[in-house]
């Protein structure tokens, strides 16, 4: 190879290299930021900016999107859990006006969860570096971007400078091979990945998901996979852009147009990892080994197939992990060696930035159609646009006729800080991304599943193998 020829690089390295402004003696790089999403929890950073007398450097690249604290019950969006949460959401609007940033407010039909809004509006594009003060910013990597969550002080730094100091993560590739079995979804894939490598299996890494099973996924499925990369400890997750990506982006409100579109597509086509690119870590998983999957414990790594039994903590050689697993079982009210199938559930949540997109709602509706819910079930679209499209397709009527509650857009019961929560010892089947102790409410017991499995639990009143309710095509 000629000394002048660039070394082979992964998509992550290509995006990283193109955003480095400078590197210091400690090995940190100052990176240029292309998109900055600010949800309602970003008020601390704006306070820091005001206290220092600074302005937002690039308000045109900054987008305010209230989602965590908003109510989802009423059309006027005034059903806040309390005045404190109302104030937090209203602060987004105040900061948007004061600093001149773009706002998708509660009276805007585009409002929703930041990680749903960005891709659907054509804001999250291949090759961009995207940040947000939320760990599930990794979602946007499905668009072929390098996207990651940041803390409050980092949010303030980006607001003031449109840049951020970062240590370069290691590169990891997870290749998904084989043929997808009937009833297996993208949520099952990412739960299977996390169970395989553990919740710390990708610490310090930027994951690239590759292989034929990923290539055959829709953008919405890829968003689900990348969304939960953080649950494996990763800094980011991404999928190289391809024709599926280009087709998804074309015509969206903020997507490039005309000659700029042609130039953008030409650039995007250079982003996929070079054929001989090397990675610090490689993992390969056969999707054919997966079945509808759900969690049994209080970490996303505590996941098994619907027909598997709950593992015995005593089989853990590490004492600390053994104690953690037993604590999880005690918290969840379950026993090692038992099956989750037919375990009664108390309620169901369908939504979140993991599974609140239109495809997710279509898939849940396909299971719910013609059936009746046996337990309280809430369906929360990921954005106002998703809600409108679902209603245009009649999905809302299917849910309502099945006895499901049809809500307005927001994070809702995923995070449990907005009035939508789960009571202590109540067992909830949820399409969200975290099942930590207290995540959906103090003492709440959460089982993570895909939309189809959630709908199946709703109409049977227990954890069910959704394949028993589906017709294989």
Please name the defining characteristics of this protein.
alpha/beta; 473 residues; Aconitase, domain 3; 19 strands
CATH first level of the domain at 307-469: which class? Answer: Alpha Beta
Distance between the termini: 50 Å
The major sheet is characterized as: 5 strands, parallel
Arithmetic mean of pLDDT: 96
Architecture of the domain at 307-469, according to CATH?
2-Layer Sandwich
What would you call the structural class?
A: alpha/beta
Portion in strands: 15-25%
Helix content: 25-40%
**Order of strands across the biggest sheet?**
5-4-3-6-7
Number of helical stretches of at least 4 residues:
16
What report would you give on this structure?
With 473 residues, this protein is of the alpha/beta class. Among the domains are: 11-166, 2-Layer Sandwich (Aconitase, domain 3); 307-469, Aconitase, domain 3. It has helices at 11-19, 43-52, 83-99, 114-120, 152-161, 186-197, 212-215, 219-227, 243-249, 258-268, 319-332, 352-355, 358-368, 384-392, 395-401, 451-460, and strands at 20-23, 28-32, 35-38, 62-64, 102-103, 129-132, 146-149, 163-167, 170-177, 205-210, 236-238, 281-286, 293-295, 303-305, 347-350, 377-379, 405-406, 427-430, 445-448. The strands form 5 sheets. Strands 5-4-3-6-7 form a 5-stranded parallel β-sheet. Strands 17-16-15-18-19 form a 5-stranded parallel β-sheet, covered by helices on one side. The longest helix is centred in the first third of the chain and has 17 residues, at 83-99.
